[in-house]
Design brief:
With 190 residues, this protein is an all-alpha fold. The protein is built from seven helices and two strands. It has two domains: 96 residues, Orthogonal Bundle (Helix Hairpins); 57 residues, no CATH class. The chain has a two-stranded antiparallel sheet with strand order 1-2. The radius of gyration is 29 Å and the shape is elongated.
């Protein structure tokens, strides 16, 4: 996610990135929600400071004035509660909008409508050729009997997998290796 400060300082760069990536995002709305949120936070901070000042001064006030000051504190507390709810809503909306903003592209990245227009920058070595049809990791793991995406999909939903037998043991061995390596470096498992 982009930093809101970057969006404030470079809205045109973010708009250009969205246009280049063919994304429909409203940068002006992001900036408006951010502005409203910052204004509300400043108002809430001022109200909290006033509430603290009144709370501290109530004890020093004459008895006749204490009821009025207590009522003012109660009014501020109510206003703060309402303002905090509004601030939470604006913060949630801002986060949702910010998650949709694209990262700006580097200047050297070519523009293209699809991956067919990608530009090969360099090639190192020659692509390997096989005398058989290579399998993707799902088919390869299923063939070895260590991976089951189909059953996992029925149990917990799409894009999940189960590691079976040696696949499960391999993952645990890899995790154990990483843990041992980190402990040898002086880290403590927590």
């Amino acid at each position: 996610m982009l930093d809101i400060k970057f969006v404030r300082e470079h809205p045109d760069v973010v708009r250009a990135a969205a246009k280049t990536k063919r994304m429909d995002v409203d940068v002006d709305r992001v900036l408006d929600v951010d502005r409203r949120r910052r204004e509300l936070v400043a108002k809430l901070d001022a109200d909290r400071a006033e509430q603290n000042r009144l709370n501290k001064s109530i004890g020093a006030l004459p008895t006749a004035e204490r009821a009025g000051a207590a009522e003012a504190v109660k009014s501020l507390k109510s206003r703060l509660k309402e303002g905090e709810e509004g601030e939470r809503a604006l913060t949630a909306e801002l986060r949702e909008l910010m998650l949709r903003l694209p990262n700006p592209l580097a200047a050297e990245v070519p523009d293209g409508a699809s991956d067919k227009e990608n530009v090969e920058v360099r090639r190192v070595g020659a692509p390997r050729t096989f005398d058989f049809v290579p399998l993707d990791y799902v088919a390869f793991g299923a063939k070895l009997g260590i991976f089951d995406a189909e059953r996992a999909g029925r149990i917990v939903g799409a894009r999940q997998y189960l590691l079976l037998g040696d696949g499960c043991r391999f993952e645990h061995a890899l995790l154990r290796f990483a843990m041992d390596l980190m402990q040898a470096q002086g880290f403590m498992p927590v």
